[in-house]
């Protein structure tokens, strides 16, 4: 699937006497803002804006290149426990891992994303992309709230859930989501929870 500024290429290579025509499915609008400028102007990305500033990712998101930002909205940040959010925001390494987990190494418009695709993030991890009816899914969840916001250096998809990589979780949080969750109850009863958090 080929896209031109997120417009789908319908028919290619119509040769004319003075050139060639490619037919696309929408009008291409002028794009003037970088990904960083989109973050700075969107009200729904206020928390993300603060997180990007705290992790010094501003320069990357306004640099030349082609990236995809899966931009967590304010709603996405509000869904996770306040204690977890404060811990990540207060840990520069965990925060950078969290944000890099939301940045893909290439520009991916929604039209070009197909079910079963695995995409690599800047953090080095992968995200599974699929679909549920008309909706795109990430790791099995239909969490994309707004897609294909074009930037001069890539594309932004707004997501309404935070994608937290393992590297930004405590031992306790990792264990709670795995098959050793019952063991964690034993650690808690023994008064050792603080070592795991």
TrEMBL record:
Q: What are the record's GO terms for cellular component?
A: extracellular matrix; extracellular space
Q: Which domain of life is it from?
A: Eukaryota
Q: Which Pfam families match?
A: Fasciclin
What Gene Ontology terms describe what this protein does at the molecular function level? cell adhesion molecule binding
Gene Ontology BP annotations? cell adhesion; extracellular matrix organization
Q: Which InterPro entries match?
A: Adhesion/Biosynth-related (IPR050904), FAS1_dom_sf (IPR036378), FAS1_domain (IPR000782)
Domain called FAS1: residue spans: 1-28, 32-163
SUPFAM superfamilies listed in its UniProt record = FAS1 domain (SSF82153)
Q: Which PANTHER family match?
A: PERIOSTIN-RELATED, TRANSFORMING GROWTH FACTOR-BETA-INDUCED PROTEIN IG-H3
Name this polypeptide is given: Transforming growth factor-beta-induced protein ig-h3
Identify the taxonomic lineage of the organism of origin.
Eukaryota, Metazoa, Chordata, Craniata, Vertebrata
Q: Which gene encodes it?
A: TGFBI
């Amino acid at each position: 699937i080929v896209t031109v500024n997120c417009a789908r290429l319908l028919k290619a290579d119509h040769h004319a006497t003075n050139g060639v025509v490619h037919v696309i499915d929408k009008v291409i609008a002028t794009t003037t803002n970088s990904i960083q400028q989109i973050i700075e102007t969107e009200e729904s990305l206020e928390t993300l804006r603060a997180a990007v500033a705290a992790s010094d990712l501003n320069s990357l998101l306004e640099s030349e290149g082609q990236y995809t930002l899966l931009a967590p909205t304010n709603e996405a940040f509000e869904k996770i426990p306040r204690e977890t959010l404060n811990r990540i925001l207060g840990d520069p390494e965990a925060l950078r891992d969290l944000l890099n987990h939301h940045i893909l190494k290439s520009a991916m418009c929604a039209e070009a994303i197909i079910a079963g695709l695995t995409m690599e993030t800047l953090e080095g991890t992968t995200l599974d992309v699929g679909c549920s009816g008309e909706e795109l899914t990430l790791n099995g969840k239909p969490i994309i709230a707004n897609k294909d916001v074009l930037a001069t250096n890539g594309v932004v998809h707004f997501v309404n859930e935070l994608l937290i990589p393992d590297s930004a979780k405590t031992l306790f949080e990792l264990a709670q989501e795995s098959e050793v969750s019952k063991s964690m109850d034993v650690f808690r009863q023994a008064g050792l929870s603080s070592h795991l958090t």
